[in-house]
Amino acid sequence: MADDTKVAVLGTGIMGSAMARNLLSAGMDVRAWNRSREKAEPLVKDGAEVADNPADAARGADFILTMLADADAVEEAVGGDVLSELAEDGVWLQMSTVGEGGTERLHRLAADRGVAYVDAPVLGTKQPAEQGQLIVLASGPEEVRERSEQVFDALGSKTVWLDEAGEGSRLKLVVNNWIVGLLGVLAETVAFAEATGVDPAKFLETIEGGPLGLPYAQLKGSMMIEENFPTSFSANLARKDAALVLDSARDHDLHLRIAEAVTTLFDEAIQAGHGEDDMAAVYRAASPDRG
Length: 291
Ligand code: NAP
Hints:
Strand order of the largest sheet: 3-2-1-4-5-6
Bound molecules: NADP nicotinamide-adenine-dinucleotide phosphate
Helix content: 40-55%
CATH architecture of the largest domain: 3-Layer(aba) Sandwich
Number of domains: 2
CATH class of the largest domain: Alpha Beta
Number of strands: 9
Structural class: alpha/beta
CATH superfamily of the largest domain: NAD(P)-binding Rossmann-like Domain
Shape: globular
Largest sheet: 6 strands, parallel
Oligomer: single chain
């Protein structure tokens, strides 16, 4: 079955290119498109075709998989008549993080074109994407779930099915609020340790292995201590995610003060030139040097 499956992958950034490689390894045909074509070209040696535009990528495909920065980028790529290029009964797997409003907008676009829409944002970053270990938070019509799972199985270790399209994105926002809060307090804790003459490595060592010692704290905390921020998830996109959380909270009459404060830290780090660095560079805004 996978041998005949054709997937149009729109967006071959950090996540999309790793995902495209895993689809190819699972025996699927991949036609990839990326706004900056040079980021899609390396996939050719893995067996992908590179398309000049989204419509060419989508032509005759069973699935269109979008993994772009935000809802505007997805709408720009998939708008026009791109969805009509899919094979009969083709399915749109929308895996970018676009929030509640973005999901509604894109779902409407799919409905206008009569294409089944599966809302399927992911948990996991660059390395899990490369290893096919993402967690897919999927929601959408019952009748396309089994078919969609062959794609998700190639990308992740687990697919959590929720009900109607949009529920996956809402769960993703909840997890993102947790991540944003953790990252902000981690940055300030490392800065606080340094300010008080405590070796921040001792802090990480002390919590390691116990209930407070999240592997995430070890990973991002070490980056902060070493001030080395190779990008798994950019500060720009983390700031976008924090804003999506705040938008959604506002729409539901909830004031999230911690997410708001961390968003300010992101803004400062981005203004200082760290937008394309890993999100752990938020530490630069929290540390006394404010580098
Ligand atoms: P990335 O490496 O920065 O790639 C972003 C992609 O979006 C690139 O293909 C970029 O094209 C494209 N893009 C941006 N603006 C565009 C526009 N206006 N029109 C067309 N294309 C546009 O990002 P990523 O880390 O792969 O993230 C992709 C999505 O996955 C995001 O929604 C992100 O929030 C989500 N996500 C990321 C992670 C992670 O850890 N990295 C984890 C979970 C979810 P160019 O190459 O031409 O700039």
